[in-house]
Design a protein that fits this description.
By secondary structure, the chain is mainly alpha-helical. It has a single domain, classed as Ferritin, core subunit, four-helix bundle (Ferritin). The protein contains six helices and no strands. The chain is globular, with a radius of gyration of 16 Å. It binds fe (ii) ion (FE2). Fe (ii) ion binds next to loops. The site of fe (ii) ion (FE2) has 2 residues, from loops.
């Protein structure tokens, strides 16, 4: 019997949260490319490079977490459709200009969303006695906190 989205959400597990992260990585990876290509202004060179660094990192995290899911007998999302259906962050076509600073603000929001997911996963993994997944998620959350700090610093904000 097919599991409805509601049932799926009501039974969150560490694995389902990690899979939600995988979906988000797919969307974030594409979005960072969009910003990498379209960013303009005096910060072009710095942000063009930073966004590339971030999409490469996102791709690596996606691979690491998807492989963790396989290793524990789960099935990571692996199509663009699944990524879009299950991601909690969103994308949009570049049909109007986005100021460089707004790109950074949007990313901060996305990273915060993913940070909350990661924390949810840490809690569930701990309850499930899955120390390895818990550790991986804590490491990922550490990375997110650092990225958010740097992006906030770029636009002149405290965290
Ligand atoms: Fe490039």
């Amino acid at each position: 019997m097919a599991v409805s989205k509601f049932q799926e959400q009501s039974k969150k597990t560490a694995a389902s949260v990690v899979n939600e992260l995988v979906a988000n990585f797919g969307v974030l990876y594409v979005k960072l490319h969009q910003y990498h290509w379209y960013v303009q202004g005096p910060d072009f060179f710095r942000l063009h490079e930073k966004f590339e660094e971030l999409y490469n990192e996102t791709s690596a995290f996606s691979d690491t977490f998807a492989e963790r899911l396989i290793a524990i007998g789960e099935k990571p999302f692996s199509t663009l459709r699944e990524y879009l259906d299950h991601a909690s962050i969103s994308e949009k076509p570049y049909d109007e200009k986005i100021r460089a600073e707004d790109m950074v603000r949007n990313l901060i929001e996305d990273y915060r969303t993913m940070g909350s997911l990661a924390l949810q996963g840490v809690k569930l993994a701990s309850e499930e006695n899955d120390a390895v997944t818990e550790d991986m998620l804590i490491g990922y959350k550490e990375n997110i906190d650092k990225t958010i700090w740097m992006l906030e610093a770029f636009i002149g904000n405290d965290v």
